[in-house]
Amino acid sequence: MTAAGTPGHGPLSGVRVVELAGIGPGPFAAMLLADLGADVVRVDRPGGPGIGVDPAHDVVNRNKRSVMVDLKAEDGASRVLDLAERADILIEGYRPGVAERLGVGPEDCRARNPRLVYGRMTGWGQEGPLARHAGHDIAYIALTGTLGMIGAPGEPPPVPANLLGDYAGGSLYLVVGVLAALHHARATGAGQVVDAAIVDGTAHLSTMIHGMIAAGGWQDRRAANLLDGGCPYYGTYETSDGGFMAVGPLEQRFYDQFVDLLGIPGLAPARKDPARWEELRATVADRFRTRTRDEWTAVFEGTDACVAPVLSLREAPGHPHLAARGTFVDHEGITQPAPAPRFSATPTSVRGGPALPGADTAEVARDWDVPGLTGDAG
Questions:
Q1: Left, alpha or beta for 16 (phi > 0: left; psi -120 to 50: alpha)?
Q2: Which residues are CB-contacts of 257 (< 8 A; sequence separation ≥ 6)?
Q3: Please, are residues 269 and 206 in contact by the beta-carbon 8 Å criterion?
Q4: Can 136 be counted among the known catalytic residues?
Q5: From CA 263, how far away is CA 296, in angstroms rounded?
Q6: For residue 32, what is the enclosing H or E element?
């Protein structure tokens, strides 16, 4: 088995996963399972997903193996079902009904393997008025209220890349779901379908906020609350060189250090008086504009003032703390985040680069005992 194979490495060693190739949250969920040691076989289709990323640099496909199957070919479904028969988990991210039409839906797969956990990753979910409509991260988070929480009042909400919906509300909930279902399947012998919808997961992420609204501790408008930029000691400020510092000393003892190091101890009481927050915000902003980002970083380094420089994606791997922890790794010339979280007894690592479409077909056919996999992919 190549370095990308997973048996014997990570807490999910021995778990077999079939990933029906797609884009966004499904592949990321499969990557997380692969990082944790599962043997993830990605079923790529001729022509690829069409997102324009060079497969050799698509690190979301690291630690996986790839086979090529044309699901529209006469024998395409049967080859996927052969894999599903030998798998613990299958992940797909089609619109509702598509997998069924292709002959690889939950009933088809579980007829061959009753223990199979069938993970379905969508934006709108498997049912509901919007279930069969197209969409992307930004639309899903818009309807949940979470996008509307972000940004300054009177301005369009900023776009948080696709981290909030696709990955936090989507991928991570799918992984939690399929692992919980796998636990149940191993205890009972019965698999099940996991319906992971980005709208559900993203809404779930806002549970604490909904509780605060009910308790009267959160206003349902932007930049008016403790954690949404309304509070002057929880936000970001520009420095003299155009950089930014992130500020978050919520507790009194941390706030006291913050105002002392910033040089505004006389405004310390304004913390408890929202009527003075704009005065405090303006003073903090003026102070940060007197020095560069690196100069302010040096001022707050090693303190409990809860202040940090806002780094770019390229800068982050070089930060001393992240470098010391190995939060980022270089593998085959690509700098990328290391697997997370960490395990004391079953450590994980980046074992193989991005799986190239179809490159592992013969190897998987042998390892999974699926000889028909090596036929013409159409």
A1: beta
A2: 249, 303, 304, 305
A3: no
A4: yes
A5: 12
A6: helix 25-35
* Tens digits of residue pLDDT in 84-102: 999 999 999 999 999 999 9
Q: Between 198-205 and 172-188, two packed helices, what is the crossing angle to 10 degrees?
A: 100
Using DSSP's 3-state secondary structure scheme, residue 308 falls into strand
Is 39 labeled as catalytic in the residue annotation?
Answer: no
Q: Are 81 and 58 in contact (CB under 8 A)?
A: no
Closest CA to 300 of 265, 252, 249: 249
Question: Which residues neighbour 199 within 8 Å (Cβ) at sequence distance 6 or greater?
Answer: 123, 124, 125, 140, 143, 144, 169
Give backbone dihedrals phi and psi of 356, rounded to 5 degrees, phi first: -80, 140
Any residues with CB less than 8 A from the CB of 77 and at least 6 apart, and which?
71, 102, 103, 104, 108
Of 58, 82, 88, 166, which one is the catalytic site residue?
166
Sign of CA pseudo-dihedral 101, 107, 113, 119: positive
> Phi, psi at residue 255, to the nearest 5°?
-65, -40
Which secondary structure element, helix H or strand E, spans residue 80, and what is its range? Answer: helix 76-85
Triad 65, 67, 69: Cα angle to 5°: 155
Classify residue 122 as exposed, middle or buried by CB count within 10 Å of its CB (0-12, 13-18, 19+): buried
Question: 285-324, pLDDT tens digit by residue?
Answer: 999 999 999 999 999 999 999 999 999 999 999 999 999 9
- pTM over 0.85? The answer is yes
How do residues 172-231 score in pLDDT, each as one tens digit? 999 999 999 999 999 999 999 999 999 999 999 999 999 999 999 999 999 999 999 999
CB 52 within 8 A of CB 78: no
The CA distances from residue 312 to 83, 296, 318, 339, in Å, are: 41, 17, 10, 20
CA 170, chain centre distance (Å): 7
Answer whether 330's CB lies under 8 Å from 311's CB: no
- Residue 120: what are its φ and ψ, rounded to 5°? -115, 120
